Amino acid sequence: MKNYEVKTIDVSTGETLAYRTTETPGPIVLLLHGNMSSSVHFQPLMERLEKNYNVFALDLVGFGDSTYNRTLNTLRDFSEDVQSFITTLELSDLTVIGWSTGGGIALEAAAALPDRIRQVFLLNSVGLKGFKMYKKGPDFQPILSERIYKREDIVKDPVQVLPVLQAYETGNKDLIKQIWNSTIYNLNQPEEEDYAQFIDAVMKQRNLVDVDVALTQFNITHEHNGVVEGNGLIDQIKAPIIVIHGEKDMIVPVGEAKETKRLFGDQAELHIVKEAGHSIITDDIEQLSRLIENELEN
């Protein structure tokens, strides 16, 4: 895996964002990573795209080498840093590719900056009605009739949250690797050297609970999502949407991608990658980069 130099920039939210860039000529592509990751995870894709595009990959606030000076409660909060990054660097006519949580942040940014963002790719993205988290029973199984979305409940979650927080605190990389192997790299694993870099990047996260709170309360539709009413922000997104989703995704089921396509209608197109899970970059980077380049050329 090619490693790109880390640069930093101060943005209007009072944060300092770390980012990597190919510094190559061509249309601008901005990559936004998901939960438990950073711009490091995008380096294989950057290498594929740099021949024809000028690619930027951010560390979102509280991830990687970016600062974490304030509590974030919504994906809109996360997108404010992204918006400031775009305007500070005077980026325009750009394509934003958001993976997982980054997809929701990309949509928030597209709604806020319609004159700068020309299209959005949603890569195994959170759905438009957010991410469902459930209360766990004594057997640690989810109680499907009891959703959780408040910070005080999420921070106590004994399955999805507490073990990860403890692993971060104690530097338990083995547990983090186990989580990735069972849920994200369930089909294919990266090469050992790359994998070590990815896990090191994951360990830098400081905002896990913020992200979970933001994901459970995200809802840009006109419908109720079971915990919060939709805010209708979908109407403010004017850019074409390209949805790319791994059929075997264990984090965000492929049904979410189909629902996103339904809600956006003709504004969106949907590509399902058959032999891929939550990390298409790992499972089928050939098809992913081909899909992206075909769309960017059109």
TrEMBL record:
Residues covered by the AB hydrolase-1 domain: 27-281
Cellular component, GO annotation: membrane
Gene Ontology molecular function: monoacylglycerol lipase activity
Domain of life: Bacteria
Gene3D superfamilies reported for this sequence: alpha/beta hydrolase
Any one of the GO BP annotations: acylglycerol catabolic process
InterPro entries membership: AB_hydrolase_1, AB_hydrolase_fold, AB_hydrolase_sf
PANTHER family named among the record's database cross-references: HYDROLASE, PUTATIVE (AFU_ORTHOLOGUE AFUA_2G14860)-RELATED (PTHR43798:SF33), MONOACYLGLYCEROL LIPASE (PTHR43798)
Official protein name in the record: 3-oxoadipate enol-lactonase
Gene of this entry: pcaD
